[in-house]
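Figure caption, in words: inputs first, then the predicted bound structure.
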Amino acid sequence: MGEIQAVILAAGEGKRMHSTLPKVLHPLCGRPLLRYILDSAVAVAGEPVIVIGRGAALVRETIGAGWSYAVQEKQLGTGHALMQALPHLPEEGLLLVLCGDTPLLEREDLEQLIRDHGDSAATVMTAVPPDPTGYGRVIRDPGGAVLRIVEESDATSAEVEVAEINSGSYCFDLKVLREFLPLLSPENVQQEYYLPEILSLMREQGHRIGASCLGRWQVALGINDRCQLAEAAAIMRGRINCSLMRQGVTMIDPASTYIDFDVRIGAETVLLPQTLIEGNTVIGSGCRIGPGVQIMNAQIGDGVVIRQAVVAGSILENGAAIGPFANIRPGCRIGPGVKIGDFVEVKNSTIGAESKLPHHSYAGDVDIESGVNLGAGVIVVNFDGRKKHRSLIRRGAFIGCNSNLVSPLEIGEGAFVAAGSTVTGDVPAGALAIARTDQKNCAGLGKRLLEKGLQQDKKGRAEKEEKA
Ligand code: UD1
Ligand code: CA
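Bound structure (calcium ion present):
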């Protein structure tokens, strides 16, 4: 499409978000808002100029230093923002002007705008949403030619009734734009330099201005507040889910499946309801995930099963089975075929192939080799109140139920820890460790205690009845 330039306006205050975070950095399906329109712009134009202002340093840091930025020191309106970008742009050519807060516009929409622009001086992208509240309205003459755009705050009651809105995206002839941009004035209710005002200025001087009306109004959605953010997120989720399903992922209930933009999932994986997959998580094929699972920044192999669990910042190898009700915290590598069962927490640990932690355990800062079995309730005691310590459990060891392994220590290959032990030192390979008080049996005492209890109960009941 020839040499097309783009500017993205992203300096605004974002007042309606009521947030310390700049509006364009608010996350939408795991990425900052601004990233979406940036991607679409890059797909059709040369390297865009991003106008930043509010939270400029943070925006630059989050989006990356590799882009071309213009700084708008004071937020004096969209027209003023575009003025700041002019020194970064060539003298002439086509210019797309886009807003940082319209994340749903895709490449095809921008291509449509450029096609409809032809050789006009300016073309505004418009849409007809069911509720135009908050947007600038497109005022046309009886013949349908665009006369001007009026902001809602400046509109008459008749103008407010107009259904067609300004999407905030435009295509300009740069040479004409350079001539008219200095003519904008802040004489309006908001005392800002309104960019849309340039259309009527151009028209009055005989330039051709046009409108390119979107078929799907939803993609024009501008995010000014958190209701609109949620609305856009729902649409974006729909797109992400559809695309994954078309690649072979099954979703039992797409409406309750929340997947971030950068997540990758292999074919034949099944996602059950109430599942959140976040960050840059990668999931293999043939997995079964959910219901009730939250996964953040994890790498998951093939054939992994995860039910009612949280998995964060960890690697799960092929065929691992997690949950129900398990918590895999950051820094874990869970080997192939490992079973992590109910109410088990694992943190910063490696678990070797086919090892089992089936019930009620805590494994923190421990390296467990392959074929190890941790009985119910085993706790790796990694914290002494001041420092964290690390332990090692060698191949094939068996740790009996309700044992405490006080780190740092090493359990040798094939060693056996008796149930209920509190182990405070190394156990050699093949050894049996028992660390608990010996059992004592007192003949007949059990029966006597039970009978005494029964008699007391009987006496209590009789006294109550007497009183009543
Ligand atoms: C703007 C349009 C409105 C249109 C709507 C579409 C104007 C005056 N109004 O209104 O006609 O229907 O977008 O969503 O243009 N920005 C700056 N610097 C500023 C002000 C804004 O960079 O001084 C940026 C913002 O970061 C934002 C974009 O420009 O990304 C739009 O600004 P915003 O304040 O959201 O304008 P709207 O009120 O939505
Ligand atoms: Ca807006």
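The chain has two domains: 4-220, 244-433.
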